[in-house]
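sorry for the late reply, my laptop died twice this morning and i had to redo everyting from scratch. anyway the thing you sent over, i finally got around to it. pasting the sequence first so we're on the same page, its 124 residues, then the predicted structure underneath. double check i copied it right bc i was rushing
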Amino acid sequence: MKQAEDGILSPHRVLDLTDERGTLCGKILDELGADVIKVEPPGGSPARRIGSFYHDEVNLEKSLRWLSLNTGKRSVCIDIETADGQAVFRRLAVTADLIVELFSPGYMDDRRQMHEPDRAEAAR
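ok and here's the structure:
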């Protein structure tokens, strides 16, 4: 866990829902001190499947690109396609200052209730 003096963004929490095209953004925010939580789909992020792999062993936990761009981040698996997953995401989103995502235009609009927390939850 980062200490309060670890960077200009240290008081802020970021939810990173990006794929391989956006992991660098989350890495930069982490290096600036933000508490970055990588939200992965069931089975893990597709970025975990991009090589090179440590000792050339193809394994979701050994992608060197993944490891280099996601060190410092915490990670959680949430299926945002399901109602239960959307409820979990809403509870997590209430705690976030920023959500970084790279979905197709309209994807999050179709799931507006997912990222617009209940006003009572937000007040907590």
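DSSP finds six helices and four strands in the chain.
thats about all i looked at so far, will dig more tmrw
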